[in-house]
Design goal:
heterodimer; A: 216 residues; alpha+beta; 6 helices; globular; B: 165 residues; 4-stranded mixed beta sheet; 47% helix
Chain lengths: 216, 165
């Protein structure tokens, strides 16, 4: 299937989502929640907006390619929406980059720089309640404060590993990833595969000791 | 798990086939029978439907209608609808919290009183309203809180409480 992104001719399989076709063609589109193997895109982060001529703005991770489609990744509308989405994520994220275990390979920071967005000061009406990080598991730590609710860990735990340890709980500002009844992970059916930690784009899930995991 | 609870689950599960889409209705029915969703209740529902416990918990916490602590002997519902709110419902709620020494959604250690806030009871002319064991206490004030408790302890006073106006 032939179509174009920013005027560049791109080929992709039928049913392929625009995001992956673009990334394969070397065109960068910010994304935080997308998983390529996932059957249904989650579409939560709202960073991968693109504009299709004659169709308007869509999230590229949920939109399959179409014959002769003209996709643009850098129109003003796209930029504005992406930046706003990024600001909304950042408004809820503690910017403790200096002490963050994800320092160096944080995807959030990468796309924040890519989009040239500053940490917004006025988007959160009241301070965020600080939650206690779950350090019960011998291998990794779950720090819900840094979570951006991308849902990647939930997908791998549920669909790939089928351990069913995590899911979203509560609602609105209180929404978080949680085990059953919010119990410590050590008391959950977690098998300690560490897949959730590997997909986490931020420092919400991190290994206690990076060396240790190689032995396991 | 108590035998009694087990019986309830058996009965409820017999109404609903093991399909994911019955999750909310199952939780509602279980809550109706037991008064709240216990840990066992959520585990059993998850097992019955073949979904994860974490997901059941996630769905249950999303909705305000589900509670995770049992009801007290006296269930106190403070109205926080628009009318009751503007008439000082928050102060009444604070009054109950102070008097009982529990937070909203909680229950006293002796399981006598449970406290809850709701959107609207539907009698805004009597704002701010408090519902105790389904009896309406109209035009509440923080000062009346202690009075209400005196009435609850004094058994025969239920009808007089109702027509306090």
């Amino acid at each position: 299937m032939d179509f174009s992104i920013d005027g560049k001719k791109v080929k992709a399989k039928k049913g392929e989502k625009i995001l992956w076709a673009a990334l394969d063609a070397g065109i960068e589109i910010p994304h935080l929640c997308a998983i390529r193997e996932a059957e249904n895109a989650w579409g939560a982060c709202r960073l991968c907006f693109v504009e299709i001529e004659g169709r308007g703005v869509v999230t590229s991770c949920t939109e399959p390619v179409g014959e002769g489609m003209m996709v643009h990744t850098d129109t003003e509308r796209v930029q504005r929406l992406r930046k706003r989405a990024m600001e909304l994520i950042l408004a809820d994220h503690p910017m403790e980059c200096k002490t963050c275990p994800k320092r160096g390979d944080c995807e959030l920071l990468k796309w924040m720089k890519f989009l040239k967005v500053k940490v917004p000061k006025n988007l959160r009406p009241f301070p965020k309640e600080r939650l206690e990080p779950d350090e019960s598991h011998p291998l990794f730590v779950l720090d819900p404060n840094k979570c951006i609710l991308c849902g990647k860990c939930i997908w791998v735990c549920k669909e790939k590993i089928r351990a069913d340890v995590l899911d979203f709980a509560y609602r609105g500002y209180n929404m978080r990833i949680s085990t059953f009844l919010g119990k410590p992970i050590a008391q959950s059916p977690c098998i300690g595969c560490g897949e959730c930690v590997k997909v986490c784009p931020v420092g919400a899930l991190y290994f206690k000791d990076k060396e240790e995991i190689k032995e396991v | 798990m108590l035998d009694e609870e087990g019986e309830v689950f058996k009965e409820v599960f017999s109404y609903f086939p093991a399909r994911r889409r019955y999750l909310i209705r199952l939780l509602q029915t279980v809550q109706q029978k037991l008064g709240y969703l216990s840990e066992d209740a959520m585990k059993e529902v998850a097992l019955h439907l073949g979904i994860s416990e974490a997901e059941t918990f996630g769905v249950a916490t999303f909705y305000n209608q589900f509670r995770f602590v049992p009801l007290g002997k006296h269930h106190i519902v403070v109205c926080m609808g628009t009318a009751c709110h503007t008439m000082g419902g928050q102060l009444v709620l604070d009054g109950f919290e102070r008097e009982l020494d529990v937070k909203v959604g909680g229950i006293t250690p002796d399981h006598e009183y449970s406290l809850e806030r709701v959107g609207c009871i539907g009698c805004c002319t009597k704002a701010p309203v408090v519902l105790i064991n389904n009896i309406i206490h109209p035009k509440m004030t923080p000062y009346k809180v202690a009075e209400v408790f005196a009435g609850l302890r004094d058994k025969g006073s239920k009808s007089s409480e109702e027509h306090q106006e």
